[in-house]
Design the sequence.
């Protein structure tokens, strides 16, 4: 494979992004499981949004992550 790779992210970045997307989907799904009216229960107001927030943090980390191989160059 060529050393002059023009892709903005490495394989590790894409794997972390996929984990973040799965986390986001899981958080939104957990919010739909709430049985309280208008989603005002624990799942809809606390747990689901915390997991969604964690998914966004993972995505942010994936964008700025640089592998150790990249730092050696």
Sequence:
């Amino acid at each position: 494979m060529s050393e002059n790779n023009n892709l903005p992210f490495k394989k590790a970045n894409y794997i972390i992004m996929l984990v973040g997307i799965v986390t986001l989907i899981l958080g939104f799904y957990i919010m739909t499981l709430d049985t309280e009216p208008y989603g005002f229960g624990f799942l809809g107001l606390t747990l689901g949004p915390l997991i969604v927030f964690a998914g966004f943090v993972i995505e942010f980390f994936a964008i700025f992550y640089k592998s150790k191989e990249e730092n050696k160059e």
